[in-house]
Amino acid sequence: MRQSLNEFLTTGLANLGFDGGLDLLWDKDDHTFTVDITFSIEKKGQHFLLDMTGDSSKENPIEFVDSILIYDSTNQKFKPAWSDDFLACIAYDGESGWKKARGVAFLEYLKVILLSGRKNLQHFLSNSEQLDFLLNFELKWSEEDFEELVREKEKSVSGILPYEV
Fold it and tell me: Where does the source fall among the domains of life (predicted)?
């Protein structure tokens, strides 16, 4: 029995061992998946933090949320302008879904992003030597690094992960 894209993502995200929040939201009408990533960490000291809208936050613990959009490239409802709202936007090919190699690469690369993000967030919140307003934290997704990992996985991983309703 072959695994669907939804089953693969659900199982794979659960098995990543991330100590924050990983939520998979499936929008069947728009044929999209959104992976919401939440980091929660205790803030030490009296840092004055501003969010992206410029509002100050003294809440503890600090929560940082970002999202990845996985969308159907054959669906005309998708608007490329949305891409600014996400850490990454990754297409799948309609009912054909993803090659399994792309799915394996996605989970592997996401784990790298989560580990480096956790480390960078801890550094960001513990760095009392710099002025708070000069610090900036954000997750970074490299499309080039991801696609290179996909090509590497295609050498050893076969099969497809179809999109099934």
Answer: Bacteria
